[in-house]
Amino acid sequence: MEYLNMLAKLGVGNAHPGGFTATLKQFEQYPLPTASRILEVGCGTGRSSCYLAAQGHDVTGVDIQPDMISKAKIRAEKENASIEFLVGDASSLPFPDESFDVILVESVSIFTDTDTAFSEYYRVLRTGGKLFDREMVQYKPIPTEINQEITTFYHIEKLWNISDWSALVNATGFNHSQIDGPFLFPKSSEDLTEHPDYYQQMDADSFLDHTIWEVISKYNSIMDRYHEYIGFILVIGTK
Fold first, then answer.
1. Which residues form the signal peptide (predicted)?
2. Which pTM value belongs to this model?
3. DSSP string, 129-167
4. Is the CB of residue 38 less than 8 Å from the CB of residue 26?
5. In what order do the strands lie in the sheet with 100-106?
6. Which of 23, 43, 205, 217 could join 61 via S-S bond, C-beta 3.0 to 4.6 A?
7. What's the CA gap between 167 and 47, in Å, rounded?
8. Selection from 102, 23, 2, 27 nearest residue 60 by Cα
9. Which superfamily, per CATH, for 3-238?
10. In 3D, which of 68, 70, 71, 50 has the Cα closest to residue 60?
11. CA nearest 115: which of 65, 168, 167?
12. Predicted pLDDT at 1
């Protein structure tokens, strides 16, 4: 079982770097204009989307995994949130040019064709709109064998460093770009304690699926052993 499949099976709503704590801190530090039209790319089970909808924004969420979208729709119904959730690929967003005021991305770009995804974010943003993308980052050189272990586990092409992300956001055409961080990964238990997810939906057979627990064990091992090499950043760009 792959990492992303495990998240879908467990219906995890805070798997992105920094957890839901980082999401809330971002919205506090960078308040969004009232009643913004927001696209969350890789919305997962819709936790961030539902939060934004509750603040009065017009939110659309897309995710490449149908199971995630199904769970996002259930969450929205339980939270009485009006959100359009669609199955979609970050590298080929199903929207016209200049459709959104804000693009929100939480640990998605690194898992797809990153250059193409950024071009799509730029395309569907209106002029003057903003991109906020929180992603994993390599913040010091990593030995080859450790790099290979991490990229193999996450099924990603490479671990980007800060210079890589900065070059990409500028090459795509974004203005006034900035990168906050890097930040260290907090303990996932801390985020769950501070911000429990009352609408998490786990598949019924999850507890009996040993492959899920193998992936969780591997994830925890990587986070514990290699925290000195990897963290996360927030990439911000204006169209």
1. none
2. 0.94
3. EEEEEEEEEE-S---HHHHHHHHHHHT-S---BHHHHHH
4. no
5. 84-87, 58-63, 37-41, 100-106, 125-138, 230-238, 175-183
6. 43
7. 30
8. 102
9. Vaccinia Virus protein VP39 (3.40.50.150)
10. 50
11. 168
12. 84
Tokens of 172: 């795509």
Q: What are phi and psi of 6, to 5 degrees?
A: -60, -45
Alpha-helical segments (H) within the chain: 3-10, 19-29, 47-54, 66-78, 114-124, 144-154, 162-172, 188-194, 210-225
Question: What is the residue type of 84?
Answer: E
| Residue 70 in tokens | 């199904």
Angstrom distance (rounded) from CA 97 to CA 82: 23
Taking the C-alpha atoms of residue 229 and residue 143, their distance in angstroms, rounded to an integer, is 9
Residue 12 pLDDT grade (very low, low, confident, very high; cuts 50, 70, 90): confident
Helix/strand/coil for 6? helix
Helix 19-29 vs helix 47-54: crossing angle, to nearest 10: 30
| Count of positions (residues) in the chain | 239
Domain map (residue ranges) of the chain: 3-238
Q: Which residue has the tokens 């939270």?
A: 79
Q: Count other C-beta atoms under 10 Å from residue 138's C-beta.
A: 19
Q: How confident is the model at residue 166 (pLDDT cuts 50, 70, 90)?
A: very high
Q: Is 44 helix (H, G, I), strand (E, B) or coil?
A: coil
- For residues 159 and 142, the answer to whether their CB atoms sit within 8 Å is yes
